Every structure is written in C-alpha cells, then in structure tokens.
Amino acid sequence: MPFWVVSAVYAVMLAVFLAVDLVWLGVAARGFYQRHLGRFFAAKVNWPAAFVFYFLFVAGMLIFAVEPAVAVQSPLRAAVLGALYGLFTYATYDLTNLATLKDWPMPVVVVDIMWGVVLSGLVSVAGYTAATWIR
User: Fold this and answer.
1) Per the confidence metrics, is the pTM higher than 0.85?
2) By the 8 A CB rule, do 78 and 69 touch?
3) CB-count burial class (<10 Å; 0-12, 13-18, 19+) for 70
4) Which residues are CB-neighbours of 22 under 8 A, at least 6 positions away?
C-alpha cells in the first residue's frame, strides 16, 4: 500500500480503537475493572504512556493483520489475524501479571484476554475495510 493509504488506514484504525476501547474501559467494564483492580490504579492516568501504547498497538495490527489481509483481499484473514494479535498481546500482559504480581485476579485475565481478541479483530476488520475503500 502507498504511504498515504497506510497513513489513512492507520488514522481510521486508531480512531476506532480509541473510541471502542475508551467506551469499554470507561463505561461498559468500568465497574468490573474497578472492583478487581481498583487497588492497582494510579490517582491519575499517565496519558503519554497510554498514547504510546495505543500508537504502537495499532501499528502492530496494521502490520501483522491488515496488510497481510489486504494482500490477499480477505476480510476474514484480517479478523483472524487481528484476533490472534489481540490474543497473543493481551495474554502476554495478563499472564505476565498473573505470574509476577501478588493477587492478580483470574477474572481479569480471562475477561481482558477475551476483550483483546474481540477489540483487535474488530479494529483489524475496520482497517481492512478502510484500506479497500480508500484504494
């Protein structure tokens, strides 16, 4: 894909990811995370760190899920590769926490990994759709 297409697709993916994840974290699952992880929360969100995460995570989805799917013109491939990307990355975070932090809650591990799968699959399909529409 030409650079301008990649940039546009990235922007769409970032917007979708931020919107969906912020609704999940701020509304849908807020009570769940507060109940299980409230003792771990900082008084204020470290927004620079959060944005670095979002920028890198979306770049990873674009590289490892969307571009390969666009190459073979398969939205299913975007969904599957995106979901797998979410599985591997969210599992890395949650299982590392489970292994190394005292009292990391198992319900968070399960819900968070499932959320990573759904969110990454959805955003990857949005990226694929944007790429095919823009081209």
Assistant:
1) yes
2) yes
3) buried
4) none
Tokens at 56, concatenated: 């890198």
- Identify the residue whose tokens are 């701020």: 26
Top pLDDT among 95 and 1 is at 95
Whole-angstrom distance, CA of residue 29 vs CA of residue 70: 32
Tokens of residue 80, six digits? 């599957």
Give the type of residue at 107.
P
Question: At how many degrees (to 10) do helices 75-100 and 47-61 cross?
Answer: 140
Q: Is the model's pLDDT at 1 over the cut of 90?
A: no
DSSP secondary structure letters along 72-106:
TT-HHHHHHHHHHHHHHHHHHHHHHHHHHSTT--H
Question: What is the gyration radius of the CA atoms in the chain, in angstroms?
Answer: 16
Tokens representing residue 34 in the block: 């507060």
Tokens of residue 21, six digits:
């994840």
Token pair 């198992």 is found at 106
pLDDT digits (tens, 9 = 90+) for 86-127: 999 999 999 999 999 999 999 999 999 999 999 999 999 999
Q: Is residue 64 a contact partner of residue 127, using CB atoms and an 8 Å limit?
A: no
Q: Which token pair is 94?
A: 């949650």
